Amino acid sequence: MNYIIVGFGGVIGAILRYTVGKIFREVMDKDHPVSTLFINVIGSFLIGYLSTKHLSGEYKLFLMTGLLGGFTTYSTFMLETSRYIKREKHMKAFIYVLVSIIFGIVAAGVGIWLASFV
After folding, report:
1. At what angle do helices 34-51 and 90-115 cross, to 10 degrees?
2. What's the predicted TM-score (pTM) here?
3. What residue numbers bound the domain in which 59 lies?
4. Within 10 Å of residue 79's Cβ, how many Cβ atoms?
5. Are the C-beta atoms of residues 111 and 48 closer than 8 Å to each other?
6. DSSP assignment of 34-58
7. Which of 13, 38, 50, 64 has the most CB atoms lying inside 10 A of its own CB?
8. CA atoms within 13 A on the CB side of 70
């Protein structure tokens, strides 16, 4: 049953990620991986927030492992960074990695902090 719960959450998360990415691609220059950054920062915030809540095992599996696991995208982050490096845009790659890590950590921290109030 746990596999079904995780899978269902993952399907929803992947569809949400695809939708957000599609919206960003329609609005922004395709050379900028802003959608991946946005998705990963929002996911970090939500995982931080949910990690402090006393969720049952099934809700935790569905929301954190499934939905947010399917929504966030470490592999795309790595691919986009690798493409910057391949095109010899080393400074863009460095800034992208630095911003992603810092914003992700801050977002998770804010989520944890906010959970103590809400």
Report:
1. 30
2. 0.92
3. 2-115
4. 13
5. yes
6. HHHHHHHHHHHHHHHHHHTS---HH
7. 13
8. 19
